[in-house]
Design a protein that fits this description.
- By secondary structure, this protein is mainly beta.
- Helix content is 6%, strand content 47%.
- It has two helices and 17 strands.
- Strand 8 and strand 9 form a beta hairpin.
- The protein is elongated, with a radius of gyration of 33 Å.
- This is Lipoprotein.
């Protein structure tokens, strides 16, 4: 009798193939206008050439008026007295998007002071604007450059003739330094602050495993 043929069952081993790939995605947000803080400046100052590369801005448009120091008054008598004078003014506009650079740092009554220029013709603090750190940590306009042949400058908030800014205290008479302020009819106080633009870039490194399944 013929022995039955036994068919051996084949065991098929299927290996799962893992396809491994790397994906790097980058999300970049819009640059935001932020007040320059002491902590932020400390991080900037630690990097080589970072202060020179940094561009700063004003929080609101600043108008600076210079009046010539000469006396151009005319006095005439012809039946009546006529007194006339001519004001020769120089108007400097620093817009919100006018880029400035920090040319020097200093101290004013023990508080940090940033000297900022908004024109390439100014290279040192003698012609720069001074922004002093107030008690709340914000760098605010405190010093304006004088010009030879002109009277001391007058500052205006957002180009309005009735918004002339005057040196004063933000909240308390005990504050170390005066800063340029304008107060509206409701008593709200406004200043010109030092602004930086900051952009955040989020990078995500993702590892992807694709399982091809069993055949």
């Amino acid at each position: 009798m013929r022995a039955p043929a036994f068919h051996h069952q084949r065991i098929v081993r299927t290996l799962s193939v893992l396809a491994l790939s790397l994906g790097l995605s980058t999300t970049t947000g819009c640059a935001k206008r932020l007040r320059l803080t002491p902590a932020e400046f400390e991080r900037i100052d630690k990097q080589e050439q970072a202060v020179d590369d940094l561009r700063v801005f004003v929080s609101k448009k600043l108008i600076v008026i210079y009046e010539e120091a000469g006396d151009d008054e005319d006095y005439d008598v012809n039946k009546t007295i006529t007194e006339s004078n001519e004001d020769n003014l120089l108007k400097v506009i620093i817009a919100k998007n006018t880029r400035g650079v920090i040319v020097d740092t200093d101290q004013k009554n023990g508080a940090p002071l940033m000297w900022v220029t908004f024109t390439s013709s100014c290279k040192d603090k003698d012609c720069a604007y001074g922004f002093v750190q107030a008690e709340d940590g914000v760098f605010r306009l405190a010093v304006m450059p004088e010009r030879e042949g002109y009277k001391p400058p007058r500052a205006y908030y957002i180009n309005h003739p009735k918004r002339q800014m005057e040196p004063g205290k933000l909240k308390s008479l005990a504050e170390k330094n005066d800063v340029y302020l304008w107060k509206n009819k409701r008593g709200k106080v406004f200043s010109i602050d030092l602004i930086v633009k900051k952009r955040k870039v989020n990078k995500t490194d993702t590892k992807v495993i694709r399982d091809e399944g069993i055949k």
